[in-house]
Structure formats: structure tokens, C-alpha cells
Here is the input.
Amino acid sequence: MDPRPRVICLPNTMTNWPWPRAMNPHYEVVKAEVDASFREFKALSAESQEAYDKCDSARLAGLGYPNASREHLRIACELINVFLIVDEYTDVENAAVAEAMVGIVIDALHNPHKTRPEGECILGEIIRQFWARAIQTASLPFQRHFLDSYTAYLRAVIVEALDRDKAHCRSIGDYIKLRRDTCAAKPAIAIYEMEMDLPDEVFYHPVIVELVECIAELMLIDNDMISYNREQATGDENHNLITTVMVELGLDRSGAMVWAARYHTEVEKRFTDGLAKVPSWGPSTDVLVKEYLDGMATWARANHSWSYETQRYLGTRGPEILRTGLVQLLPKVNCKASSAGAKVNVADLSMMDATADPPGTPSP
Here is the structure.
């Protein structure tokens, strides 16, 4: 019998983050359009699609890009669907199958006007349609930067699958380095460039790169803290900061959560301190840089807010858990069965908390 506490303390890491929650005014209309369009792909079984809808992927786009135009919000919503569906498909596969899926996705990105082969995994067509729409109105610098960052994410997904095949748990430093890519923060941040001609000298400047890394770390910490309960229940907790900290530092769950929250605070300070180091590239470019930096900071807030508002990680209890900081530890379940190109069963994951008892007082 597991003697560890059955309730997890989940600290609110974003209490002091200066950028507030905001929602794009086009959210409701665009959500309806994108949700209907996504269902046409039939990428999931009926049951899994119902559960996927409860994730409310469009909400993350609306929170992440509150000032985007209607057209660019639609592209952002489609991108979030791309992130989630690639994640759902590859997360349950071995490295060889994941690598094949990644190859399909990369080919679709580089050939957005080419008809996908009959019988191919649906990921190819989903990504092709997303990118064909995006490049119609996106700046060329954005297109280059997005392709670079998203390809890095896809390559990292293969590495994650290799780790999963070997049940390998990385050191904290190695894990954070990989997770900066697998959390998909960098391609998400690139969306803020869609209407910008942001010069490479800005995008690749060491200070800007470090600020992007900070936001990626804030995202991965929040995501791993909030998703840990779901992942430990499904046996997929090795690619999670909480597990990595528990293993390397010999802490229990509560101790690892405290460690992660403290590290989050350190990264917040690195980001805010880093803003003071941003150089000037002239008035016209500086305006773009400020918009870009405010955007990525908003994305960190959006990721945190959405994680409690969606049913993807905490079911219907997200707002309550944000208020109390307590979440009931879920029992172990088996929902990993899949095969190449299969429709992934996400239904159990979003509804798992329906049978959990309300959170109580954590053990010492």
C-alpha cells in the first residue's frame, strides 16, 4: 500500500506575474468555426472527440493572443489543435512510429500545396491545411522562425519517445533542456511575429533568446505541475519535472512541488531582469520588440490560466483547485493502448476526476 499522501498540494505559481489574463474578443466565433473544421478530419473516435472538445483548445489561443485579428486568431486556434493532436498521437507510440509521424508532419509543412498520399496518417492533412492557411498572411521572417522552432519541437518529440521506450528518467538539467522544446513554447511564441518583419538579429540576439527560454521554462514548470496527477495515473510521469525532481533529489511529491514553485519564482526574476538588458535597434524595430516581448509574457499567463480552465488536466475542478491548491491523487489507469495511425483514446483522461473524492487536508 502506497504510504504517500493521497492529496497533492498545487501552488499557484503566477500570483505575482505582472501580465494579466485577457481574452480575445473573437474567441467565441472563431472557436465555433475551428472546432467544426477540426471534427471534419475525424482524427479521433466519437468518444475521444467528445473528450477532446472539453479541452477547449481555442480558449488557449484566445488567452494567448488576446489582440490578434480574427483571421490570425483562427490560425492560432488551428496551431493549438496541431500541438494537441500531434501530442496525442505520438505520446502513445514507440520511437519508430513517432519518428514516422514526425516525418509526415515535416513533409506537410514543407509541401503545403501537395495532396497528401491516400491512407496516410491524418496528421499530414491537418498540418498541411494549417500551414497553407498561415502562409497566406504571415510574414516571411515568421515563416522561417516558426519552421525552425516547430521542427526542433518535433525532433524533441522523437527523443521523448526514445526515453519512453527505455523508461528513462533524465537528470533535472537534461530534462529541462529537452522540455524547453517538447513544451512547444517556442513555436507558440513565434505566432506573435505573424504580422511582423522581425529581423534575425533581433530574433537570435542572446538576450532575446534567453527571454524566450525563460518563458519556455515557466510554461514547462506550470504544465508539469498541473499535469503531473494525470500523468502519474496513466504511467507517463517520467517526462515530467516533478518526477525528475523526486528521483534526483529524493523528495516526495509535495517536496518536488515546492521545489518547482521556487524554481518558477527564480525564472520569473530572470525574465523580468532580462527585460532591462534588451538593447535598442531603433524606434521602429523597438516597437515590434516590445510587442513581441509582451506577447510572450502574456503567453506564460495564458498557459497557466488555461490549464485550470480546461478539463484536460483537472477535469471540472480546475477553478476549485486553483482556489484551494489541493488536488486528489488519481488512481492508476491503463489508457496507453494504440497503434500507428490509430485514433487515440483521450476520453478517460479528461473525465478521470469524475470519480475522485473531493480534496481533503494533505498529510504532513
